[in-house]
Automatic annotation (TrEMBL):
This is Muconate cycloisomerase. It comes from the Bacteria. The active site is at 90 (proton donor), 164 (proton acceptor). Mg(2+) 1 binds at residues 42, 45, 295. Substrate binds at residues 15, 89, 294, 383. Mg(2+) 2 binds at residues 193, 219, 244.
Amino acid sequence: MKITDVKLTAIGMPRLTGFVNKHVMIQLLTDEGVDGIGEMSDFSHLPKYTIDIVDLERTLQQLLIGQNPFNIASINLDLSNNFPEAMYYYEKGSFVRNGVDTALYDVCAKFLGVSVSDFIGGRLREKIKVCYPIFRHRFMEEVEENIEVVRKQFEKGFDVFRLYVSKNEEADEQFLYRINEEFGGKVKIKSLDFSHLLDWKQAWRIAKRLTKYPVDLIESPAYRNDFEGLRNFRMKCDLPVSEHVWSLRQQLEMIKHDSVDIFNVSPIFIGGITSARKAAETAEVAGKSLLLGTTQELSIGTTAMAYFGAALGNLDYISDPTGPELYVGDIVKNKVKYRDGYLYLPDRKSTGLGMEIDWGLVDKYRIKDLSWEDVTVHQLQDRTS
Ligand SMILES: O=C(O)C(=O)C[C@@H](O)[C@H](O)C(=O)O
Ligand SMILES: [Mg+2]
Ligand SMILES: [Mg+2]
């Protein structure tokens, strides 16, 4: 089998909060008439420059046309040479590698007539427990709005939430107090996510204040790549500490410094299922736990993560991918399913990722490029409009 063409389509998908996220769908066409699809999810993160998708499509055509898609290892090497790892969380090259790698798994599994699960180690579970994100409070008035979000999502079956904290600690505390008052033990807050916005000492001061309410873990309570800061925080805190993995080098540094208890791994930030499996195995060898992170993907990206997560032995904590529940729409005929706060894998009898593009929906959300509108840094950090 040979790849005969590569096509990219930019998608602008609004969230329920009003914030529009820009994604790129990739299609790999082959001489066997089987196509693969993948997702370069959520380019709407800093830094505020943009990828030219016409040029990217040309680059990927040069790299991939004529290649056998089963050569996943060598194609990943080519991708890494062209889009090298950087020590940065939202490195756009990782998003590009992720889209291509996912599409390779889709096309190869489809060609063999099997599910992606049959390609990457099967399934230890058919569903993954996830939590719904509560975006960062900047103003006190937002507490009431966020309590309303919890009420709505609780009715839909979500009973675990995570909270982005640190811009308005009064509001953060008020939110936790209100949740405790109204829901008692019926709703759980999995994590407080500091998103690397603070130095570890400031994060520790706020964490002490907020953890009088029950939470499972603390995420990213130090500046990016401050491995010692993370460790200092972890040594003071009774709760487990998690950090995203955005490069294998960064993961190694976190292991050397014993910075975390949990690695937050997701294919988008590490450049695909292939790299994410490497990071997950590294975590296992180092005796660390895992949770499945997210950039809030559409259904194609979320399903890829579900296959990856279903084969992990040390997925010890509640995971994060809820993108399809956050956006107003999707681009597939068969959106991924959530029930009772679980993300369900597609039927194992489906082939590839088990996703079918809905071209009507693609046309509805298609955009011409990834250009930035007038969004501010606050909006980008807080995911609100
Ligand atoms: O755990 C995290 O950190 C995130 O989920 C990051 C978010 O910014 C996410 O990427 C989003 O777009 O909401
Ligand atoms: Mg996080
Ligand atoms: Mg994101």
